[in-house]
Write a structure and sequence with these properties.
By secondary structure, the chain is α/β, with parallel strands linked by helices. It has helices at about 1-35, 55-70, 140-145, 155-170, 200-225, and strands spanning about 40-45, 70-80, 100-105, 120-125, 135-140. It has a five-stranded mixed sheet with strand order 2-1-3-5-4. Helix 2 crosses helix 4 (about 155-170) and helix 3 packs across helix 4. The N and C termini lie far apart (about 55 Å).
Length: about 230
């Protein structure tokens, strides 16, 4: 009987290991699939700086190109910065979705108090899974950086946008040694041809997509709870 029990126990262990291997392979496949998928994010843009339209579009294009390299498609929606402008921005009045975020372009007078002592080009608080998440870009600091740079203000602004959007999706403390999420940029990064050095890493791409998927799940769960 002991031998039989031992054989059964061994069989059970082997079955568990095989099952675990299957689960592991499935998880790996899910990660690989997510890594190859393209996710769409919407940025509701509040331009308190009142940038000229071509420059703003160029900045959004630079940010979109960097995000696209990570498998994220950016959609930009102009939003009102005063009550008088609300009717002029109907697209900004739609119901919020899980993949939507706020991006504010701020003049010096509106700079976040918590960031005034820093040299950061923007400020992004930790993003709650089911809340409205906001990132702010400090336009005056980008102007100062652009003064000695080879790239245009619009290009550098777009790179700053991509960096702060990265914080929205990776977390507030997500600086890295390489790529767009470095805490400080070199002269090479400030050149027109600096984009190849300012991209998200493959791991950061996977993390952002995972966080977007988790956020979508959390929003769905909240909606179902409210509907009960």
């Amino acid at each position: 009987m002991r031998n039989g029990a031992g054989t059964l126990g061994l069989a059970a262990v082997l079955a568990t290991l095989v099952g675990a291997g299957g689960v592991g392979k499935t998880a790996a496949k899910d990660r690989a699939k997510r890594g190859s998928e393209s996710f769409t994010i919407t940025l509701r843009v509040y331009d308190y700086v009142r940038m000229n339209r071509p420059a703003l579009l160029a900045a959004e294009g630079e940010a979109a190109a960097i995000l696209a390299q990570a498998g994220l498609e950016a959609r930009w929606v102009d939003c009102p910065t005063s009550e008088a402008e609300v009717d002029n921005h109907p697209d900004c009045q739609s119901v919020w979705k899980a993949n939507e975020f706020v991006l504010r372009l701020l003049p010096k007078a509106m700079m976040e108090p918590r960031a005034k002592w820093q040299e950061a080009l923007g400020f992004t608080p930790e993003c709650d899974a089911v809340g409205t998440c906001t990132t702010s870009i400090f336009h005056d600091r980008v102007i100062s950086m652009a003064e000695g740079a080879n790239a245009t203000l619009a290009v550098l602004l777009g790179r700053a946008m991509a960096h702060e959007i990265g914080h929205l999706l990776l977390g507030a403390n997500s600086h890295s040694r390489t790529g767009i999420m470095r805490a400080s940029w070199s002269g090479r990064d400030l050149s027109l041809d600096g984009r190849p050095y300012l991209l998200f890493t493959p791991e950061q791409s996977r993390q952002m997509k995972t966080r977007l998927a988790e956020r979508a799940h959390a929003w769905q769960a909240k909606a179902e709870e409210v509907g009960r």
